[in-house]
Structure formats: C-alpha cells, structure tokens
Design brief:
With 321 residues, this protein is an alpha/beta fold. It folds into 2 domains: 159 residues, no CATH class; 137 residues, Transcription Regulator spoIIAA. The protein is built from 11 helices and 10 strands. The protein has a 10-stranded mixed β-sheet with strand order 7-6-5-4-3-2-1-8-9-10. β1, α1 and β2 form a beta-alpha-beta unit. The protein is globular, with a radius of gyration of 19 Å. It starts with a strand and ends in a 20-residue tail after the last helix.
C-alpha cells in the first residue's frame, strides 16, 4: 500500500507549470503534526494487519518546508512504515537536511527538468540545479559510506522545452548517483495558461520512442533504472493526441490512497472532490478496508470527469520498464 500525502501547499520556487508556484495568491494550507501522527499510526496498524509493505509518501508544495516533517517521519518509520519524499531539491545542499533524510527516509525523489540553465529558468531560481546535484551526490556518497540509506530517484517533467535535453539529462543524473529515473508528461490541469506552448504532440512521443530503449540499456549498464514501459509511452501518446485514456479497473483504494492537506482521503489526487472522504473518520485499520467499497459506490453514483481520461500515472505503468 502506498499512501501519497500532500502535507503542505507552501513552496519556495516559481515554476510556471505548477499550481503551488510561490507567486500565486492561493491557500497555503498544511497538515497539523497531530493529525499526521494520528492517521499515520492508523496506516501503520493497517500495514501490520495486512502483512504488506506500507509506505507514506510526502508531497507538496515543498514538503521540506513542513516544520514537523522529520519528527513525524521518524515516529512513523519507528512504527513500521516506509517513508518516501518528493522534493524540488531547494534544501538538499544543506548538510543538516541531508543528515535527517538519511535517518528518516527510505526513498527520495528529486524533481529535475533539464540541464542547468533550463532547469533554473523553469524553477525561477538561479542555482536550483546546482543545489539538486550537490544534495543527491552527497546523499549517494553518505549512503555508500554508511552501507545504507534512501533509494534515490529523479523525476522529470517532459514538455516541449525539456524533451530535447532529456537524454543528456539522464546521463547527468546517472553521474549524480541516482538509482532510478521517471518522467511525467506536462499536463494542463494545474496551469492551463502555461500548457499550450509547452504541451507535447504525437511527434514528440515518436521521437522519445526512437531512442528510449537504447537509453534504458545505456543507463542499466551504469546501474540506473529508467522507467519507460511501453504501456506508459502509449499513455503519453494518447494524451499528446488528445485521445481519452480509459482505465476499466484502477483498484480504487486497494493499494494506493491520496490524502490532501485539508484531510480528505481519496483513490487519487484527481478524484478527491467527487470521491473523497474525511480522513478524520478513519479511526482504525479496519476503516481503511472499507474505503474501496465507499469509493466504488461514489463512482457509480456520480463518476468524476477525470475517470473518463485517467491522468493517474501509477495505473498506467509509470514505474514499469
């Protein structure tokens, strides 16, 4: 079970494609430490009862800006949960942040979109790329010295400006010491004004397909896994062509849950408004077992628009090869 939990809407970068761009006037809600510990303990109890590995994956905004992050992560990890984190890398260059990550996180994903100049421009911060590189490289060295530490992943947003640099970027990321590279296609839901000029078209996916298997092999030779399953590329192709992507059975709530910063729990981040339930009502591990039936009933009553063109990458083999 993976529980993706958006704990804060705060961010310190100005990414034109992201809804949490620091320049936007919007809510900046955060989860309270008490709520995170309470619900996290329920998730941990569910993991023990089910016997399956259970992971909480922190998301933002920028989760490293959430003050109780390390204290909560340490407590939940001691309770048997695996802990994951996705960060923009803005604080990774700081030695004390590296130390806490090494002690509390099982998996770290860094968002990197292009080479130095392009990445810094997209993130709205001169030095963003260098901070990511310094942090990932330091974590890799410390992991090797200690004989253990978090799995290191880089995630790339593919758009018209970043796709030409993707192959070179993957080589750079291998030099940094990442274990795995994933990618998303730019979507238009968060910032529709940014989307038209940067959206991928069918020919772009054709170009990606032309070299991705060769790139996978070259990276594998260096011990790096590039996640680029054929089905995932098919999904990207459909999006580029404007064709709906239907998922007959996504296993609603069975092995993946999303929790937002206001305390709503749902099958994914795209269906919270329609299918979400108050996380305050989840008081015991058995309550998590009831959620799939609740979600299916809500979908049967009033399917959300996203289900007609599923944007949830984890159900389209994003992490496959």
């Amino acid at each position: 079970m993976i529980v993706l939990w958006r704990i804060t809407e705060r961010c310190n970068y100005a990414c034109g494609f992201c809804a949490y761009d620091r320049r936007i006037k919007r809510s900046r809600a955060e989860v309270s430490e008490a709520d995170a510990l309470r619900l996290g303990a329920v998730v941990a109890a569910y993991g023990r009862a089910s016997g399956q590995r259970t992971m909480i994956s922190w998301l933002g905004g920028e989760p490293l800006l959430w003050a109780p992050l390390f204290a909560v992560s340490e407590a939940l990890r001691a309770d048997g949960l695996a802990i994951s984190l996705t960060t923009n890398g803005s604080l990774l260059h700081l030695p004390h942040v590296q130390e806490r990550l090494l002690a509390t996180v099982d998996e770290l994903t860094v968002s990197v979109d292009g080479g130095q100049a392009l990445h810094d421009r997209l993130r709205g911060f001169d030095g963003a790329w260098r901070r990511c590189r310094a942090g990932v490289s330091a974590l890799r060295r410390a992991r090797e010295a200690r004989g253990g530490g978090p799995r290191l992943r880089a995630n790339v947003v593919l758009m018209r400006s970043t796709l030409p640099e993707f192959e070179t970027l993957c080589t750079d990321l291998a030099d940094w010491g990442v274990d795995e590279i994933t990618f998303n296609q730019l979507g238009g839901r968060d910032r529709p004004e940014f989307f038209p000029a940067e959206r991928l078209v069918t020919g772009d996916i054709t170009d990606l397909r032309s070299y991705v298997e060769r790139l996978k092999g070259a990276l594998a030779d260096r011990g790096v896994r590039l996640c680029a399953a054929p089905r995932y590329l098919d999904r990207l192709d459909a999006a580029a062509a404007g064709a709906p992507w239907l998922v007959d059975e996504c296993g609603m709530g069975q092995d993946f849950l999303f929790i937002d910063e206001t305390g709503r729990i749902s099958p994914c981040s795209f269906s919270t408004a329609e299918y979400g339930a108050p996380a305050a009502g989840v008081l015991a591990a058995a309550d998590l077992d009831l959620l799939p039936a609740q979600f299916r009933a809500a979908k049967k009553k009033a399917p959300c628009a996203a289900c007609a063109d599923c944007p949830s990458t984890q159900v389209s083999a994003k992490f496959g090869t």
